[in-house]
Amino acid sequence: MSESNERPTVLARELALPDASGQEPDVLVGDIGGTNARIALARLTRAGPRMHAERHYRSADHAGLAPIVQTYLSSIEVRPARACFAVACPVRQGRCRPTNLPWVLDETELAGAIGIARTRLVNDFAAVGHGLAALAEDDTAVVKAGQADPEGAVALIGPGTGLGEGFAARVDGRLRVFASEGGHSTFAPEDDDDWALAGHLRAQYGHVSWERLISGPGLVALYHWYALRRGAEDPEVRAAMDTDDDAAVVTRFALAGRDECCAAALDRFVRGLAAEAANLALKVAATGGVCIAGGIAPRIVDRLREPDFARAFTAKGRLSRFLEAIPVRVILNPDVGLLGAAEVAAHM
Hints:
Layout: E1 9-10, E2 26-32, E3 36-45, E4 48-58, H1 65-73, E5 82-87, E6 95-96, E7 105-106, H2 107-114, E8 118-123, H3 124-131, E9 140-144, E10 154-159, E11 163-171, E12 174-180, H4 192-205, H5 216-230, H6 235-241, H7 246-255, H8 260-284, E13 290-292, H9 301-304, H10 307-314, H11 320-324, E14 328-331, H12 336-346
Parallel strand pairs: 2-5, 5-8, 10-13, 13-14
Antiparallel strand pairs: 1-12, 2-3, 3-4, 6-7, 9-14, 10-11, 11-12
């Protein structure tokens, strides 16, 4: 476990064979975000990993990952020999500090705490990249048409509690997955309103990254910015936020056309997601397409299919035509991170 997890890993499809007893092996997998931690067993089959015994936990309610996994293991009767956890943080030499959680994670310490010697941590969007191979056709939805190059790189981006990014590229004829922390790169204002918004956020955070806008908390920040400019907040929206997730409330009111500040926030969110997805596509020459993961995009698929998204995606001056040819898909399968963690565990 001393090898750095930031090195590119092969996106493979051939999974482990059944064990000596003839049973297909189970591995323990997790998809650990700033809000929720999802833990499951993955049965490795020749057709791909199959999830079962999945449990959900609130990440912030626990002092670290080990207590969550220990609780999970106490609820099942088997003890897998391998474990892989996809975590929203940059993993280096088996260690990481999640951006949106007050944890420090270490593979060796985690392995000892949960009693599984073969334990690995991987970046959450590296796991998304590995999970692509296990997706069925109906696990994705096209939001911008294009012609994918089967030999081209694939850009990965996804707003959730944070903004994850990564990519998969052909290296020596093999598709390899690379983690990225591009969501923390600096937000680029495009007009006077954006500059005013950037100044507003800079006063709160200092550095204004894309994640400050294009994430669940970012969507809420956009809503509050527009409410501040309007000088009032709809009491119905405020009341809904008292009992429900703030970002879900903004999305719901925006899609229903029930509040102009929510609608403006979602519009800006969509344009920002398109702009940063295009930035990533340009940086990695993603002729193989762009895949949008995370918990927000599947809820707004129809909104992403509207012309605003494609316009903002291709608005890159001299490279607009290059981007016009790149297809964009939303990953609908919420298990893609778990599937990717299982793919990694299968080849440990």
